[in-house]
Amino acid sequence: MEALERAADAPGGLSFAEYEFGTNKTAHLLRSLAYDPGLFDRSVSLLVKLAEAESRDGNRQEIASIFESLFHIYLSGTQAPIEQRARLIENLLRSNDAGRRDLGVIGLRALLKAGQFHSSYSFAFGAQPRNFGYWPASREEIEHWYASVIRMLEPLAVSDHPVAERVRHTLAAHFRELWLAGVYDHLERVSHAISAKFDWQEGWIGIRKAQRYGAKLMSKKSRSRLAVLERSLRPTTLVQQVRAAVLTEAWGPLDFADIDIDAEDDGSNIMAAHERAQAMAEMLGSEVAKDSTGVFSQLVPDLVRGRGARLGPFGIGLARAASDREAIWQKLVAALAVPPEEHRNVGILYGYLNGLAKTDPVLCDVLLEEAVTNATLACWFPVLQTSVPLNGRAVTRLKRSLVEGKAPLGGFECLSGGRATDPLSGAELADFLRALAAKPEGFGPAVQILSMRIHSDKDAKRTTEPELIEAGRELVAGMSYDKNDDRQDYSLRTIVDVCLGGEVGGSVAKTVAGRFKAAVGGYKAYAFHYDQFVQALFRAQPRALLDAFFGGGEKDRNLGVRAVEDICHIHENPMDQVPDDMVIAWCAEDAAIRYPLIAGAIRFARVEGDSLEWSPLGLRMLKHAPDPAAVLERFISRFEHDRDGGRVSAILESRLQLLDGLKLGASSVLTEFVRQKREELGLDIEKHRKWETEHDKDRDERFE
């Protein structure tokens, strides 16, 4: 532990962390060290530092998961008592650092978890025997655990601390399991304390979910106490009802739709419950619009921030019943300008415009025109425009928004959802896609929009219009590559499948393949990020792709093989899309070069049952190649690399059956070559087996 602490405090900080196959071994070691209560705080302190370092690199999920595991009541791998663990989490929750508060919330969720425990972590420490960590021996110990956590969080929950709202949310999300754990007095006390200061509608939803899903596990007395608590937190005013039905999240642990006691758990009734919740939100919007007591003014700051799930339907109801619709809009826009940008939510504006499109379409058009350049709304314009069916005027506004440059280009990707572009003609959409793709970061959104339009055409059994097919060819031909972007693959495949057929498509495919190879060769793209795209290219234009991928000079040819190899390490071989006859015919055109070359790219073997067999194409290449030994040499060189994991010695040993399965006559030119290669492979297997044994011994005995 002291060595780890010295390393963490040394110049260079946490570069001491050791990784193996992407796993942070240091974090796992710290988890093991935390078993001892005397080392728990120090181990967790280093885990926090590791998490902070990982966060700067953009990924701390593994560290956060290890951290979380130390705070469960079961399977924690530590003997640290609840008081020690709760104190540490409280310190993180009260931190001035947002990242540490995030870890505190993760730890709080773990402390409050009361069911469905599992762990994939090791509970051993070298040769030292260990157990699973603290394990409550009685009902009293379980109640003590959760009571201690509630006492710790209560002062925070009733405060105005930056983390207080998340603490209240976390408590509400665990209410059912905590009630079943029997800490009634503590839950009643903290619930009354919170509701005395806040409209704690999440708490009420948590109680209602406990009544719906946990009643059968409760005693009559427990159900009665819970019913009394539910009545005391039940929303009765219009403001409280809006906070419960509109401003809470959907499809999460505290979904208002889940309190529908009459709904059963089959899918149709769950959806019906959500539809009823949507209808209630719309009705509440109408009620607020009709209210004359200032409810709208009281609610408006919260209607434009946070993650309220049913703001859209609420906005529809608001627009439908408002007497001065433009005044309501202006108040919403003014309120939206107040919170920090990262906390803003335009869901109610989206719904309001949707409602206006039906009740006052002229005003709706006017407000959308103004939104293009409005200081507050311009960055949200693409989303707002999709609130109403698109038409020619909408396309004109969208192009104006592109010119204004105030809306992030990624925001235009919203046009790919909900069949938003279906009302547009192919010419209208193609024109907009060209304008979007011409922007520096517009290619990705343009690809997503077009691919989803193609999907929509397919679902509706429509033929994709020629203007869109031409736009698809232009997009693919002009695509840029980013080695950190692996999101476009499926969408590009969709476009290639529809847009790159025919003679014109073959010319485009050659150009695209050449640029793709150049990007891979220049380390501007990883081939395995584009596996579906490359497969689609080979499927659409197999002959053109053979020429483009494997033609040219030696360096260019080998680059094509390398790209295919990179894809095959993780995904299916794109060469499977090329008919075997076409491969053989193509190789025959320049047999001396092409047969050994393509031997490095095709699938040469396949699994049949429990055995490995030569593929039909692999055998045909050995039969027709002018130099079959060169082809077989290339196949053998891939034995170690064409594998899904496991010990190299075992993988190579399984490949011996391929050599043994070759039906060679006594006069075959390959007979002596195969004998020699089998002998070399046997020596290679022994070398790998020796290294693996020594590696295992070093790893498994290091704590002996």
* Helical fraction: 55-70%
Question: What is the spatial order of strands in the main beta sheet?
Answer: 1-2
Average per-residue pLDDT, rounded, comes to 91
CA-CA gap between termini: 18 Å
| Cα gyration radius (Å) | 32 Å
Shape: flat
Q: What class do helices, strands and sheet pairing give? A: mainly alpha
State which percent range the strand residues make up.
Answer: under 5%
Number of helices: 35
**Poorly predicted ranges (pLDDT <50, ≥5 residues)?**
none
- Outline the biggest β-sheet: 2 strands, antiparallel
* Strand count: 4
Describe this structure in words.
With 704 residues, this protein is an all-alpha fold. It has a domain at 579-703. It is built from 35 helices and four strands. It has helices at 2-9, 25-33, 37-56, 61-69, 82-93, 98-112, 139-157, 164-173, 175-180, 184-197, 201-214, 220-233, 238-245, 267-290, 295-303, 311-321, 325-336, 347-359, 361-371, 381-385, 392-404, 426-437, 443-459, 466-477, 489-499, 502-521, 531-540, 542-550, 554-568, 580-588, 591-598, 616-624, 628-637, 648-660, 671-700, and strands at residues 19-20, 23-24, 605-608, 611-614. β1 (19-20) and β2 (23-24) form a beta hairpin. α11 (201-214) packs antiparallel against α12 and α14 (267-290) packs parallel to α16 (311-321). The protein is flat and about 95 Å long.
Which helices and strands, and how do they pair?
Blueprint: H1 2-9, E1 19-20, E2 23-24, H2 25-33, H3 37-56, H4 61-69, H5 82-93, H6 98-112, H7 139-157, H8 164-173, H9 175-180, H10 184-197, H11 201-214, H12 220-233, H13 238-245, H14 267-290, H15 295-303, H16 311-321, H17 325-336, H18 347-359, H19 361-371, H20 381-385, H21 392-404, H22 426-437, H23 443-459, H24 466-477, H25 489-499, H26 502-521, H27 531-540, H28 542-550, H29 554-568, H30 580-588, H31 591-598, E3 605-608, E4 611-614, H32 616-624, H33 628-637, H34 648-660, H35 671-700
Antiparallel strand pairs: 1-2, 3-4
Helix pairs in contact: 2-3, 3-4, 4-6, 5-6, 5-7, 6-8, 7-8, 7-10, 8-11, 10-12, 11-12, 11-13, 13-14, 14-16, 16-18, 17-18, 18-19, 21-22, 22-23, 22-24, 23-25, 24-25, 25-27, 26-28, 27-28, 30-31, 32-33, 34-35
